[in-house]
Amino acid sequence: MSWMEHCPEQHQPLLAQRWNDWCDAVGVDVVAPVASQLDDERRARILARAFVGSAFFVRQCSRYPTLLAGLLAHDDCGLAVPDIGNFATEEQLEQALRVLRNRVNAEVIWRDFAGQWDIPTACARLTELAEVCIQSALDWHRAKMVERHGEPRSSEGHIQPMVVLGMGKLGARELNLSSDIDLIFAYPEPGQSDGDQYEGKKSLENQAYFQRLGQRLIKSLDAVTADGFVFRVDMRLRPYGDSGPLVSHYAALEDYYQTQGREWERYAMIKARPVAASGEGAAAASEELMEMLRPFTYRRYIDFSVIESLREMKTLIQRQVRARGLIDNIKLGRGGIREVEFIAQAFQLIRGGREPDLRVRNILKVLPLLEEGGHLPAGSTDQLGDAYLLLRRVEHGLQAERDQQTQTLPPEPERREQLAFALGYESWNQLEDALVKARGFIEREFDEVIAPPEESGEITVSDTWEMLWAGCEMVEDRDNWLEHLHNAGFQPAAKALELLTELHGDRIVTALPVAGRQRLDQTMPLLLAAASEVSEPSLALERVMPLLRAILRRSAYLVLINENPPVLNQLLRLCSASPWIAEQLARHPILLDEMLDQRRLLQPSTARDIADELREEMLRVDPEDLEAQMEALRHFKQGQSLRTAAQEVTGALPLMKVSDSLTWLAEAILQQSLTLAWQQVTQKHGTPKGASVEDMRFSIVAYGKLGGLELGHGSDLDIVFVHDAEPQQTTDGERAIDNLSFYTRLAQRLIHILQTRTLSGPLYEVDTRLRPSGNSGLLVTSLTAFEKYQRESAWTWEHQALVRTRPVAGSERLGSAFESLRNKLLGAERDEQKLREDVVAMRNKMRAHLDKSNDRQFDLKQGPGGIVDIEFMVQYAVLAWAHRAPSILRYTDNIRILESLTEAGLMPAHQAAHLIDAYKAYRSEGHRLALQQQPGVVSGDQFEAERKTVETTWQQILG
Q: Domain Glutamate-ammonia ligase adenylyltransferase repeated: where (predicted)?
């Protein structure tokens, strides 16, 4: 058509296509009157700009056939407020709001491209649209809530309105096309609705009432339907962000902002204003809310204290631009819209307390005031305003194309030319020149604000981690952060970013005092940098998060981490290697102190070292304070266990030495706990005849892993108590009791000390079921009774268990006597055939009940050819052959027993070596799995050679 000649030739194909699409959609009866007006060159050019510049505009003109004709016929089509009384359903309300939104946005695009409305006029219309839609939806839903639940009232019976605060551009009446709206919901006072006064209505607490009202309001605006959406709603500026309540009463708001409000929240609150309210007294409630918030936003003096926070905010802006290369982003890039906003709002925060005239929300109104007050150079306001308006108009042009929230200039040359044409420029070069000039001026003015700090031109790794932590919740930066995390080794990056955003927005973080938050903000970039150096950064980050949460309110630990980089590096390595370590640290943050001395942390200790260190530790505790003594024992055990685990995962301590270290630790704690128990019981009942603290005539005998020096992380203690005092005699105290009762109470007190769950948890879980007659037998047995039971009543499996027994605490004299008895019992000659049958029967019984192996997995402990098979062969060998070679009774651990069998000529060296290698391999994997908090089960194709060797040896020894 001839009217298209008013459009540059390069755009005519696109214009023709979109014009034809519109014609096909609306029909000839609609097209004709519009086409007849296009002989007018001005109208033809306006239509060409709108059709070339906005696919969204063409789509709306096609959806609403009378729209284009109306725009041509009128200078302002107006904004008709919906009559919500006509809407019977929520769907009707939502459709009406979306139709209104689409029509108004289309008109704004038309008037802007036509040059009929300037940016302030366009923004005012879009803001008015938002206010009308919010108010209409709020009123409609409130009416429905009143029908169901009555009116919300205070405790004094006053109806409670709900006030909607508009933040950001909505609050400043600067809303742009395709903009989010940032809202905060509030109501004056707690109470409940009066629904219970009416039949069929259910009363609700005000908090629940307004929560539902807010949720329904958001849905009516935000949900995408066949007609699109009204506005995307962002509620993250409310107290505590996403983790906070959706709506707050005034007292809660006031308390939050007075005690926890941060500088960026003051910065945001500059633009806040009520944009909708519903309920009796809404206007007064809105005014009351703003009066309440004003002291938080504006101090009563010239607020120089905010300068450092603003300087940090400004530095962050500059770093983000450098890091992300936002050259083509007219909002976030250098010389962009955000920098103009910062210039104005920085002065408002600093001086708004003493200069009330500066408390205006609209940026174009505040800039002249800043120049008049001497805060900006003379003549700069007009240039800043013009530059800002240009950027906002280009922003509208970008968002008009597809109704998308973007501020990035298109990279494609044809799209750039289309944008320039729609905005009335002869070419992209002409528009680009104007943008470069405007952005250059804004950049220079921005750099002059609040004494910019000296900074290097290059962005450092540290800068990037700081920006990631500070901006991890910014949706528009998500792709950038994911890319950075991925490149730094965080796999999957999405999981790492989720962990960071959850922590950043967590209520416990937003509730931190200023000092605590500053320390956390120092810690997180350091932590992220350290995590990127370990083998699995995302895993390390996930495992350290519970510890971070545990120490947030004890920020001295954050200082410890910040000021000791080796501690942080070691912390990440250990958490990455073992969830058990991470869990222990999270449960007991005091263990971080253990990491201060890196040499001590990774330096293995001897049995004497551990015992001496524990004695010294206990000497520092009030001997009359049992609770403190029990806590000291637990702290020592946790610290020493952490050191052992650290030495294990770093390779400083091999498997056998790990078990030795944990066994020595248990022995030292048992001895100290027994001493405490002795002091308590003797203080109350006196001492048995012939007994003393040096020789209590009482001994703790270890079975199982403790007896075999094979203790692991988290192992129980299998122990039995023996004494050799005369049972019928009594103690010498004022509240004398017989000796058997005394030693029973001593054992009970010891178990109490070990198993009681204090704030730091138990010391050890104790199992005493291996004593004579098991749970039905006496807790404490005399040595004589123990011998009688073993000779006359014990089962073969009880003699097997005796192979791994040894005294570990108490009377050394009695311990020696027990060892002699053990050697006699184990050295007795036995019927090997009967012994073999008993051992095999017990092994089969255990496997039937305990083995978790199947076609796909192998149970390291109970599976065929596994740990227990080796243990049973060792126990059989000792019971069968010790009468011929007493030397094999010297040790209680399986490996050294196997070595002694070779030395005694009872087992071929190669056979023992194969069993030792398999046993070490199984236990090493078991320890690794324990530190990973995984069950002792591996894939069925693992350890095939070891299992075959063990099973072959089993057949040779036990048939």
A: 84-280, 569-819
- What digits encode the pLDDT tens for the residues 817-861? 999 999 999 999 999 999 999 999 999 999 999 999 998 999 999
Does residue 147 sit in the same domain as residue 265? yes
> Which CATH number characterizes residue 441's domain?
1.20.120.330
* Two structure tokens written together for 218: 């958001």
Residue 573: inside a domain: no
User: pLDDT digit string (tens) for 264-291?
Assistant: 788 889 999 999 999 999 999 999 999 9
Q: Give pTM, 2 decimals.
A: 0.57
Question: How many independent structural domains does the chain possess?
Answer: 4
For residues 111 and 235, the answer to whether their CB atoms sit within 8 Å is no
Q: Could you tell me the residue range of the domain that residue 861 belongs to?
A: 828-959
Q: Is 539 exposed, middle or buried (0-12, 13-18, 19+ CB in 10 A)?
A: buried
Tell me whether residue 589 is in a domain.
no
C-beta separation of 348 from 355 below 8 A: no
- Pair 369, 360: CB distance under 8 Å: yes
CA neighbours closer than 13 Å in the CB half-sphere of residue 947:
18
Residue 889 lies in a domain: yes
| Same-domain check for residues 728 and 716 | yes
Q: Which two tokens stand for residue 919?
A: 């046993």
Same domain, 289 and 322: no
User: From CA 261, how far away is CA 240, in angstroms rounded?
Assistant: 10
Question: Pick from 876, 874, 905, 907: which is nearest to 891 by CA?
Answer: 874
How far lies 942's CA from each of 147, 264, 655, 780, in Å? 68, 56, 19, 44
pLDDT in tens, 63-79: 999 999 999 999 999 99
Is-contact 889 822, C-beta < 8 A? Answer: yes
Contact 207, 245 (CB under 8 A): yes
> Could you tell me if 700 and 728 are in contact, meaning their C-beta atoms sit under 8 angstroms apart?
no
772 contacts: CB under 8 Å, gap ≥ 6: 778, 781, 785, 786, 789, 790, 793, 794
Task: For strands 273-278 and 191-193, give the pairing.
Answer: unpaired
pLDDT tens sequence across 140-168: 999 999 999 999 999 999 999 999 999 99
- In 45-174, DSSP assigns E strands to 152-154, 162-166
Residue 768 falls inside a structural domain:
yes
CB 392 within 8 A of CB 123: yes
Residue type at position 911? Q
> Residues 139, 214: one domain?
yes
3-state secondary structure 347-416: HHHHHCCCCHHHCCCCHHHHHHHHHHCCCCCCCHHHHHHHHHHHHHHHHHHHHHHHCCCCCECCCCHHHH
Question: Taking a C-beta distance cutoff of 8 angstroms, is the pair 261, 349 a contact?
Answer: no
Residues 275 and 302 in one domain: no
Cβ atoms of 817 and 697 within 8 Å: the answer is no
Classify 162 as helix, strand or coil.
Answer: strand
Residues 188 and 275 in one domain: yes
Q: How far apart are CA 32 and CA 37, in angstroms?
A: 9
Residue 692's SS3 state is coil
**Amino acid 456: pLDDT:** 39
Which of 422, 474, 522 is closest to 52 using CA atoms?
422
Q: Token digits for 241? A: 């962000």
Evaluate whether 573 touches 567 at the Cβ level (below 8 Å). no
End residue of a domain, out of 826, 858, 875: 826
